[in-house]
Amino acid sequence: MERSDTNSCGPQSLSEMPSHSWELDRLAGYAQQQHAHLIEEEKAVAPNYWRLGMALTLLRKNFGRGQWGMCLVALKIDKTRASKARAIFRTFSAESDMEGLSVEEAYDRRHRPRRLSKKRSRQRKQRASVEEFLRQVGQELGARIGDAAGLQPHDARLLLPALGEVGRQFERLAQQLHARSRLRQVDKRQLTIATGRGSGK
Question: For 109-118, what is each residue's pLDDT tens digit?
């Protein structure tokens, strides 16, 4: 039995409303048509996103982070739409550069910052933690050296064992830092050797 054209994946009338009686291929064809229609409609409003992004970018400079969200609420501008508009504005130097693009196509061309891996992100936090510790210790040492200059000999002798233990801890920290710094150099050297062998050098 032949299937009628109205049940095919071919063009469907946009005025029709899908129903439970439609077959899967007809529903799929209708969905594709509606999506294509939306894309074409978006091409007409894409420049408006760019202009909105320009206005919001200029406006944003006058508000703090918490205030900015309240500003968008007061203006009745959706936060997600505002973010998308600003991203589009940052991506294109002029609205004419967006000619022929839908809103989503323009947004997909935005400059995306490269995300750090979880391991790399954790390593950066660890480095910042050690760096902050050393900075604070350096400041404290500067102040304590002056205090030590005024100690009595007996008091100074009592503090020497504690200073020795702290010194040993710092020595272990220095050894760990030196070991990690050399590890990266060794890895690079091994990679260079391996690459040279692979290229026949």
Answer: 887 766 666 7
Nearest Cα neighbor of 88 from 100, 99, 103, 73 is 103
H or E segment to which residue 131 belongs: helix 118-148
Please report which helix (H) or strand (E) contains residue 71, including its range: helix 65-75
Query: Exposure pattern of 117-138 as b/e (b: 16+ CB <10 Å)?
Result: eeeeeeeeeeeeeeeeeeeeee
The residues, ordered by sequence, that sit 6+ positions from 18 with a Cβ below 8 Å of its Cβ are 26, 27, 30
Summarize pLDDT for 6-17 with one digit per residue, the tens: 444 555 555 678
Question: 169, 137, 163: which is closest to 151 by C-alpha?
Answer: 163
pTM for this prediction: 0.48
Exposure letters 140-156 (e unless 16+ CB within 10 A, then b): eeeeeeeeeeeeeeeee
Task: Kindly list the distances between the CA atom of residue 33 and the CA atoms of 13, 21, 109, in Å, as whole numbers in the listed order.
Answer: 9, 19, 24
How many Å apart are CA 148 and CA 197, to the nearest integer?
Answer: 58
